[in-house]
């Protein structure tokens, strides 16, 4: 289960399946950003399957002037919508430099499906190389035959800036590193570019935030008390603890996974001037007025209430099977799970006891909570362990000499340990050609979200630095 919080999505009531190659009149009006276009892609760019599928994209050209840059973004593991063209900071950048924003959907997410189902044999075409080549093919068309992509006149000399946050931030960095002749620069916010088979660094980042707020010890003690109950085989006590946390009836391990996911919401939520969401939602309950376990339960119930989660919704969140026998399209959780099983692992576990580190999530959420399901879900061809080291060697190694990438990371980012600014120092050189900006007090991908008047000063500064870089890249 992934603990990310995506940008809010705007539902598409009606999808207009336009063919931009048929619109050649330069005076054609700019379509609304809710219009969905389609771009033809092969199932496999490397010759294993030449069948064609349609990749969806949307655009906002409100501020575009001929010769202006093209900001290409992707929702990553979410469906495309005009929240990505209208509601992110890239729209503000477009306004500043007379550009446009184009949001291109990632294969197998949303309605951009190369295959008719999500079975193991279908998902074998879900490779990082195919994903990046999808975006590269789109950008080649946008630069060499813009009339095949845009329903209005666009210069083939337009610069291209790729942007994104979290996993999409990593895609932005990889696109610039792998295709420097197509992508002139990349804005990689909270880019998850370092992968581990067992990623307990994520949980420990959360602990550092709790420690700064003064409730890390209470949370760790609460987790230990919770685990003592879940491992007791005392069903009455287990039922009582689930009731205390407002949870439906689940197996102890699924309950631990659910609570871990819910508490991750607090860790991912953005901070603003004078407002720390983790303080308000979690640490404020550790005030000495109740036991640590009760404080933990109060915090979880508060998150459940704020999200408006039903018992049924929580049961689905806790379902580690992710519908083993259901191969239907539209299951983003199943696709993401495939990436973890087949690509990089990065299982978000609690620090093993032999590390000596304090736990901030239940120890029931370990490697055996995730990995055994890979072959059940996708077939016997799945590796026993994902090759995290091999993935890093290729894809993180590619970034070491790349230029024109702007990395931004929040100092309180839950995913900080997987970015270029882990807690023990920069893992890539901070240079003029690929600078790194650490946003004090910020959490995950705050700089590329919609700007607000009460944004942190560090977030505002990061945007100003990025704007100057974009102007330099497109000059």
TrEMBL record:
<dbReference type="GO" id="GO:0008239">
    <property type="term" value="F:dipeptidyl-peptidase activity"/>
</dbReference>
<dbReference type="InterPro" id="IPR008758">
    <property type="entry name" value="Peptidase_S28"/>
</dbReference>
<dbReference type="Pfam" id="PF05577">
    <property type="entry name" value="Peptidase_S28"/>
</dbReference>
<feature type="signal peptide">
    <location>
        <begin position="1"/>
        <end position="18"/>
    </location>
</feature>
<keyword id="KW-0645">Protease</keyword>
<protein>
    <recommendedName>
        <fullName>Peptidase S28</fullName>
    </recommendedName>
</protein>
<keyword id="KW-0732">Signal</keyword>
<comment type="similarity">
    <text>Belongs to the peptidase S28 family.</text>
</comment>
<dbReference type="GO" id="GO:0006508">
    <property type="term" value="P:proteolysis"/>
</dbReference>
<dbReference type="InterPro" id="IPR042269">
    <property type="entry name" value="Ser_carbopepase_S28_SKS"/>
</dbReference>
<dbReference type="InterPro" id="IPR029058">
    <property type="entry name" value="AB_hydrolase_fold"/>
</dbReference>
<keyword id="KW-0378">Hydrolase</keyword>
<keyword id="KW-0325">Glycoprotein</keyword>
<dbReference type="GO" id="GO:0070008">
    <property type="term" value="F:serine-type exopeptidase activity"/>
</dbReference>
């Amino acid at each position: 289960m992934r603990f990310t919080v995506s940008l809010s999505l705007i539902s598409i009531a009606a999808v207009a399946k336009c063919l931009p190659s048929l619109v050649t009149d330069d005076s054609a009006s700019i379509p609304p950003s809710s219009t969905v276009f389609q771009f033809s892609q092969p199932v496999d760019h490397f010759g294993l399957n030449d069948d064609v599928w349609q990749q969806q994209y949307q655009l906002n050209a409100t501020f575009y002037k001929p010769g202006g840059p093209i900001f290409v973004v992707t929702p990553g593991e979410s469906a495309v919508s005009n929240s990505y063209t209208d509601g992110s900071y890239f729209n503000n950048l477009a306004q500043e430099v007379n550009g446009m924003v184009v949001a291109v959907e990632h294969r197998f997410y949303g309605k951009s499906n190369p295959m008719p189902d999500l079975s193991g044999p279908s998902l074998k075409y879900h490779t990082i190389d195919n994903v990046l080549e999808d975006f590269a093919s789109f950008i080649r068309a946008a630069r060499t035959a813009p009339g095949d992509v845009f329903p209005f006149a666009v210069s083939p000399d337009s610069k291209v800036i790729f942007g994104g946050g979290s996993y999409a931030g990593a895609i932005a960095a990889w696109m610039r590193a792998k295709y420097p002749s197509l992508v002139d620069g990349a804005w990689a916010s909270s880019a998850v570019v370092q992968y581990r088979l067992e990623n307990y660094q994520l949980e420990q980042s959360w602990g550092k935030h709790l420690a700064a707020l003064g409730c890390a010890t209470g949370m760790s003690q609460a987790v230990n008390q919770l685990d003592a109950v879940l491992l007791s085989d005392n069903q009455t006590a287990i039922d009582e603890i689930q009731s205390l946390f407002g949870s439906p009836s689940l197996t102890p391990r699924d309950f631990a996974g659910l609570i871990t996911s819910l508490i991750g919401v607090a860790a991912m939520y953005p901070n603003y001037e004078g407002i720390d969401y983790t303080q308000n939602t979690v640490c404020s309950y550790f005030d000495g007025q109740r036991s640590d376990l009760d404080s933990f339960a109060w915090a979880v119930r508060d998150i459940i209430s704020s999200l408006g989660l039903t018992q049924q919704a929580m049961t689905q969140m806790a379902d580690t099977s992710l519908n083993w026998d259901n191969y239907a399209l539209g299951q983003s959780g199943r696709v993401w799970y495939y990436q973890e099983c087949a690509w990089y692992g990065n299982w978000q576990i609690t620090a093993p006891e032999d590390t000596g580190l304090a736990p901030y999530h239940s120890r029931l959420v370990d490697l055996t909570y995730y990995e055994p399901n890979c072959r059940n879900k996708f077939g016997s061809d799945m590796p026993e362990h994902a090759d995290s080291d091999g993935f890093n060697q290729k894809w993180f190694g590619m970034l070491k000499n790349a230029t024109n990438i702007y990395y931004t990371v929040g100092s309180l980012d839950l995913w900080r340990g997987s970015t270029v600014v882990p807690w023990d120092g920069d893992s890539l050189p901070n240079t003029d050609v690929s600078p790194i900006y650490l946003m004090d007090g910020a959490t995950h991908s705050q700089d590329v979200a919609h700007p607000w008047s009460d944004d942190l000063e560090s977030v505002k500064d990061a945007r100003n630095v990025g704007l100057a870089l974009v102007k330099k890249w497109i000059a």
